[in-house]
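hey m, so remember when u said the tokens were messed up on ur end? i reran from scratch. heres the input so u can diff it against urs
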Amino acid sequence: PFVGYNFGKYIQHWLNFEKNPHNKLPKIFHVNWFRLDENNKFLWPGFGDNIRVLDWVIRRVNNEDVADKSPVGLLPKKGSLNLQGLNVEWDKLMALPKEYWAGDIEETLQWLDGQLGDDLPQAIREQIQQQKERLTQMN
């Protein structure tokens, strides 16, 4: 992707939106459609079944009680995704491997520091630190 000016300032520009109480901030969701199991098989079938996740997103945006807090954000509550007719293992699908996430945080911070250095907004550093702390409290 192309950003027409300093990426750190671009991020800060978006972070500044929350300072205006009249701004309605967008909800942000992250999905890993390509997560693999121990046999290198996709955990999620993908393609047309992705609409099931979009259905959950819409219900979440409409304030339905379909999410549980986790160290990495809000995840679907068990039973909140329509899995009818699918052969998926919920526990594997929703697993949060602590080692993976700890490595992801370090890799992300290293990349951001390498790209942005001092231009990385402090609010992003704080969020990364808070996520590290939440992960250390995981079982």
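this time it looks ok to me. The chain has two domains: 1-20+97-139, 31-95. if urs says something different then somethings off w ur setup not the seq
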